[in-house]
Structures are given as structure tokens and as C-alpha cells.
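COMPLEX REQUEST
Ligand: nicotinamide-adenine-dinucleotide
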Amino acid sequence: MRILVTGGAGFIGSHFVRQTLSGRYPEYAGADVVVLDKLTYAGNEANLAPVAASRRLRFVRGDICDGPLVGGLMRGTDLVVHFAAESHVDRSIAGSAEFVTTNVVGTHTLLQAATDAAVPKFVHVSTDEVYGSIDSGSWTEEEPLRPNSPYSASKASSDLLARAYHRTHGLPVCITRCSNNYGPYQFPEKLLPLFVTNLMDGIRVPLYGDGGNVRDWLHVDDHCQGIALVAQDGEPGQVYNIGGGTELTNRAFAARLLDAFGLDTSMVEQVPDRKGHDRRYSVNIDKISSRLGYAPRVSFDDGLAATIRWYKENRAWWEQLKKPNG
Ligand code: NAD
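STATUS: Structure written out below.
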């Protein structure tokens, strides 16, 4: 069996690859893994160091928009797990062309190549941000898409293409929509690693607006477990939400981190709100729980403590990435 993982040198993709090659997903024990990654600023081959010696891993540096390259890699592939994306909302506000190219055109290139090669399963990894913002209650997969940032609009566009390739061409594609991931190897521009590494160095942490924006926190290991379940047993054409079950305002989240470091709120710097900042995300995970047996296993307390420990033990990994030209 051969799995093609796009974006497998990024935060979540590399976790999926490390776990797959370590035999964590019984169905894929013994599978060969081909990683296709452009190694943008967010991609890092060091994320695959723990499995670099595996004879079952092949790393291909390349762009998901490169049709001939993608076409060649699809032949003989049994499963595509598509993580590759431009993924940082703030960057999409500063400039969104790359988001449209990679997230929309790149996904289209993959879907077409997978269709041409009659790939038996394609998992498109998306985000809860495609639903927009919800004041109360939680989104089911039936909710219309109302994305508010250029990032989430580009992801929603790729979701719609994935749906269309299923409906039109019969491509066996499943879409997953997850909440805010955290865990080791996350690029330090994202909220949790930015806060943790700042606090480690006595630097104040920036809190957008009134800090009342609510996010659901999902450990990357639970997310990848959910993806593996969808890859194995997800019904083609279906969407599956994946959540972690810990909703916190950003202010409460910052307080948890300050507590962990024994610091007080003087370390928080309130900064002007992000443009178009979604107030709250919340996914209903009944579908993946009841149909595929998914449940988040990592408690936020344990996951947070382990993640902080990882950043403390791996300064060399993140320090260079935080440098202005790192
Ligand atoms: P990331 O930014 O850490 O990694 C993205 C990876 O894709 C990098 O390795 C990068 O080099 C690669 N890449 C970018 N453009 C490429 C291209 N054109 N061709 C080939 N490779 C390319 O992202 P992540 O946090 O690991 O997110 C993975 C997926 O999960 C994304 O699709 C993202 O939208 C989705 N997601 C992430 C979160 C989260 O909390 N991190 C939440 C919901 C959904």
C-alpha cells in the first residue's frame, strides 16, 4: 500500500507521517509513505527526522500545483491525505494570492490527477473556519459555508472542488473539518507556540482585541487519529467534523499558559483586533463519533503540559524559525 501525503513536512502532516510510519494506525502498518512538500517557510524536513531512516518513507520536494509531477506521483497511490496549504490567517490578510494558488489551484491539481489515476481514496483536510463564526451552539456538517478570511475562503473553495469531484467524477473523496490544533512541531507564528516561546524568553504575548474570541482546542494526535479513521472507513462524498472538546476564550487560554509559567497578566499585551476576526468556532462531532468511533483522547491539561515541555526541550528547533529571516 502506498500513501501520498501532501504537506507532510508541516505541523499536522508530519505528525500523521511519523505516526503512520511508527505503526500507530494498524490499517497502515507496513504502508509506504510518499511526502510531497514544497518546503515553504512553514515546511521543515527536520519535522520528519524521527522517521527519516525509514525505508518506507520517500520525500519529494515539489509543488502541488505542478500537474506533471503530481500526475506521476498519483500513479500507484492507494490513499491521498492532503494537508498542503497556506495556513496562517494573518498572512492571508496581508496578502492572499499564494493562498488562492496553493489552496485552490493546488487542490484542484491534486483532485484532477487523483481522478485520472483512479485513486481509491482521497482525504481532503480542511478547517472549521470554512463555516464562518457562530455565537452559540455548534456546526454540523450540513451547515452552509460562510468563510470570513481569505484563508478560510480559499479552504472553502477547495472543499467545494473536492465535493464537485466526488459528485461529477465519482472520486472517493472525504473532507475533514477540524478545530484549532496544538502539539509539538507547530510553527511558532501560531498562537500556542508563539505564546509558549515568548513566555519562555520573558517576552509579552499579544492578545487580539478584548480576548473574547473562542476556539476549540484539538491535540494534533487526536486530529490525526480522526483522519486515519476517515481514511479507513469514511464514506466517499461525506464531510466529517473533528473537534477536541475544549472551548476557551483566547483570554482564558492565555491565563492557562501564564499559570503554567507562574506568570501574571502583566505579560499580556492587548493589541488591535485582527481584521474580520471570527468570534467563535464550534464543531459538532456527533457524526464522526457515532459512525467512525472517534473520540478525543488527549485532555487539554495533559496535552498542554506535554506541548510546553516539548518546546522547552526543543529550543534549537523553534529558535531559528522565530528569527526575522529564519
Ligand atoms: P503548516 O503551515 O504547518 O504546513 C503546511 C505544509 O504544506 C508545509 O510543510 C508547507 O511546506 C506545505 N506546502 C505549502 N504550500 C505547498 C505547495 N504549494 N505544495 C506542496 N507543499 C506545500 O499547516 P498545518 O497547520 O500543518 O495544517 C495542515 C492542514 O490542516 C492545512 O490544510 C490547514 O488548512 C489544515 N488545518 C490546520 C489547522 C491548525 O490548527 N493548524 C486547523 C484546521 C485545519
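REMARKS: Residues 2-182+218-244+278-297 form a domain with the Rossmann fold fold (CATH 3.40.50.720). The mean pLDDT is 97.
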